[in-house]
């Protein structure tokens, strides 16, 4: 295992648009064989999942007013707020993809580091969360390509929860399904749980502690490290201009179709935005915080032109590989959701 240093000219990069795109470069282009790790801190930004509708997930007016970036990551998962009180870590694995979808495996080193600080209530829980005393401090996500994947998450260390609560507009169905009434109720910072002698730690101090613990060294300088080169940064810059810094990528398009249905399944939230014309589905778009290595548009195409009734929708969905292009969800449940009877 080795560290991938994402600083530039010896200085840390805080631009979330750049940082969130690094995994795509590392698993698609650079492809260093083995198990790498990146760890960084962002300026204020809202990071949304690959399949999410930005217009439904966040308070865009608040973001514009407070100069908060909107950034779409390359993996699934939900919307999260980042500021310099957060630490983001990602495992970059090339060659052996057996650990893909194993969130427990990527969360355990973080939990072990917290246990050694005396925070015994820390745990990996649910589908892709880490929590302390039942409160979430980290959400994790993954993306896979060829024989490589990136897997990591956000660690809420000293986040400004007031800003997070204003800027995030969580899916009501998801919150209700978990018995939660507000964003604030489900999130905690790690810092209040630190022993008193560590209460003066900054996010950078905590990041360095995690790295040293994960690699079993006393100093960050002792970690085997690959430093991004000028050539690496030239490619990263080009990808920013062509894709990752564009409005099309980060905001996407809000279809604004007449019907919107959403439900939180075990695999995450699945939402359909669609129109019905002459009693048939004429346009449809899938959104959500689910994880898939497939292509949800395959499902959308299969539903266009289908009569708007339960049996016809169920039959159309039965002909599509739902497991690989969405995630394992019963076809009957998806049909019931589209018919608004779930």
UniProtKB/TrEMBL annotation:
This is lipoate--protein ligase. PROSITE patterns: BPL_LPL_CATALYTIC. SUPFAM superfamilies: Class II aaRS and biotin synthetases, SufE/NifU. Its EC number is 6.3.1.20. Pathway: Protein modification; protein lipoylation via exogenous pathway; protein N(6)-(lipoyl)lysine from lipoate: step 2/2; Protein modification; protein lipoylation via exogenous pathway; protein N(6)-(lipoyl)lysine from lipoate: step 1/2. Residues 31-206 form the BPL/LPL catalytic domain. It catalyses: L-lysyl-[lipoyl-carrier protein] + (R)-lipoate + ATP = N(6)-[(R)-lipoyl]-L-lysyl-[lipoyl-carrier protein] + AMP + diphosphate + H(+). Keywords: ATP-binding, Ligase, Nucleotide-binding. The lineage of its organism: Bacteria, Bacillati, Bacillota, Bacilli, Lactobacillales. GO terms for molecular function: lipoate-protein ligase activity. It comes from the Bacteria.
